Amino acid sequence: GHFGRRLPLGYFESCAEGINRIEDPGVREYYEGLRLITRGPLFAPGRWKAIAEYNLGSKRRYTQDYLAD
């Protein structure tokens, strides 16, 4: 089955409007980097640095509150 997860406040608005509306400052920063990685131009400045940070774990601290138990 699927796990239910809490979504950050402002997540739905962010998806609907295309503007980062997440309320928690740390999660907002995390989401902004994730948007750069997944939606930014392939060679956008900072994209490859963000990919390394997310893959090597330096940004994972923001996800702990939203993981399923």
**What coarse outline follows from CA principal-axis ratios?**
globular
Number of domains: 1
Helical proportion? Answer: 40-55%
> What is the rounded distance between the termini?
14 Å
Portion in beta strands: under 5%
Sequence stretches where pLDDT stays below 50 over 5 or more residues: none
Q: Mean pLDDT, as a whole number?
A: 85
Oligomer: single chain
Q: How would you characterize this protein structure?
A:
With 69 residues, this protein is mainly α. The protein has one domain (11-66). The protein is 46% helix and 0% strand. The protein has helices spanning 11-17, 25-39, 47-56. The protein is globular. The mean pLDDT is 85.
Essential attributes:
single chain, mainly alpha
What is this entry, summarized?
It is built from 3 helices and no strands. It has 69 residues and is mostly helical.
Q: How is the topology of this model organized?
A:
Elements: H1 11-17, H2 25-39, H3 47-56
